[in-house]
Design goal:
Length: 422
């Protein structure tokens, strides 16, 4: 089984083909090579319950592709949304630039460096800091501090000066506005924290969840709502803004899912016809059947399928805020990166589902097609607990479409299944 990094490389191949960056013949070759490495010589399987829709797919040699919202996993094909990622992507470079610039300022203040070693922009900022008496007094205090308690007291007394350091350095008007709005909130937070909590925050040893717990916020909620509850507890004046932010992010989460539903359909396959859990979960507790498709067979040029291996991860796929923020990039580059991010979201699942070893066929909703034409069916497998009535029905269809059929049998000594001729 190839790893997640190789799977992501494979997605890049698919995207490259969509943007004309790769030869179609080369793409087909790479898809087949991956399929051969993961399957029994290119064989893929679909577990089905016995009903009119599955039997129609069997007769027509088609696969039903569903809208993602109909899947049994509510996380499937959805981006995760969190404020930490947004803040990091939107203002991370500002924090980094400010930190680096302030380090140079300290070196110059202590006499270990000179302004001439700085860029023009750094010289402008550092000169303003050097002429700021309150800031210089604060720096002198930090140099003279002997213990952590004094450090905390100093930060308590000079929180405005610390925030102004970022305002002075930043050229981002939106960031400056956000810092100004955050001043009263940060002040309230510091006022409600004890020394231990402040020290943990300064050291970076405490997560938002830890902090919220210590502040009495013990509800079982996500990061966005937790932050809203913290605002309600610490900054009553900001409750309305916090609730509005929570609602907006909730709307974004739902709208993204709706956009994906309106744009794509997904068909699911796996690489194993003897997977006990798959028989239980998708073939009505071994009472259904399993279809074997041969992707090694020649395929109609008009029926090129976009088939991708599922990435199993303990980390949820996050919405790529940076693509929304990087407006300076060329449109083609942004479109390519968005296409990659969406495709990755469509094939990323919680690692708990890894037993499925799933591959997915992705089609555009715009085509109006729900049932895609598949490679030839090379075998039908009847579930070990399939009723006699359904068994006869499946045998008749197998005969009608000239496909071999086998019966799954439970091993009498081990947890395994056998496929025998019937």
């Amino acid at each position: 089984m190839f790893n997640n990094s190789e799977k992501k490389d494979f997605i890049n191949i698919i995207i490259a083909n969509q943007f004309g960056d790769i030869n179609c013949h080369e793409l087909k070759s790479q898809i087949l090579n991956k399929l051969y490495a993961e399957t029994n010589n290119g064989k893929m399987y679909k577990y089905r319950c016995v009903n009119e829709y599955s039997l129609a797919n069997l007769k027509d040699e088609t696969l039903y592709c569903a809208v993602p919202s109909s899947f049994n996993d509510p996380f499937d094909c959805k981006f995760g949304i969190e404020l930490e990622t947004l803040v990091s992507e939107k203002y991370g470079s500002v924090f980094m630039d400010t930190t680096l610039c302030f380090k140079k300022f300290l070196d110059i203040y202590k006499g270990g460096a000179s302004l001439e070693e700085c860029t023009e922009r750094e010289r402008q900022v550092i000169s303003r800091w050097l002429s700021n008496k309150e800031l210089c007094r604060f720096v002198e205090q930090q140099i003279a501090l002997k213990n952590e308690k004094l450090l905390i007291e100093s930060i308590d007394e000079n929180i405005d000066i610390i925030l102004n350091i970022f305002n002075t350095c930043s050229k981002n008007d939106d960031f400056i506005k956000q810092i100004e709005c955050a001043k009263p909130i940060i002040g309230e937070i510091f006022e409600h924290m004890n020394e231990e909590q402040k020290l943990e925050m300064l050291k970076g040893d405490s997560s938002l969840k830890d902090f919220a717990w210590k502040m009495g916020i013990k509800e079982d909620v996500d990061e966005i709502t937790r932050l809203s509850l913290l605002n309600q507890r610490l900054c009553p004046s900001q409750v309305e803004n916090a609730e509005l932010s929570d609602k907006k992010l909730g709307d974004i989460y739902r709208n993204l899912a709706q956009i994906i539903d309106n744009t794509y359909r997904v068909g699911c396959l796996c690489t194993d016809n003897k997977n006990n859990l798959m028989w239980s979960h998708y073939a009505n507790g071994h009472r259904g059947f399993c279809i074997e498709y041969d992707f090694n067979s020649p395929c109609d040029e008009k029926n090129e399928l976009c088939i991708l291996p599922v990435i199993y991860s303990s980390e949820r796929m996050r919405f790529p805020w940076k693509l929304v923020l990087e407006i300076q990039k060329e449109k083609t580059d942004i479109h390519r990166e968005i296409a990659y991010a969406v495709m990755e979201a469509l094939v990323t699942k919680d690692i708990l589902w890894s037993y499925e070893n799933e591959w997915r066929i992705i089609i555009s909703e715009k085509t109006g097609i729900k049932n895609v034409k598949m490679p030839p069916i090379t075998c039908i497998y009847i579930g070990a607990l399939c009723s006699e009535e359904d068994r006869i029905l499946l045998k008749d269809i197998a005969k009608e479409i000239s496909v071999p059929i086998k019966q799954m049998v439970v091993d009498r000594g081990e947890y395994t299944l056998h496929a025998i001729d019937c």
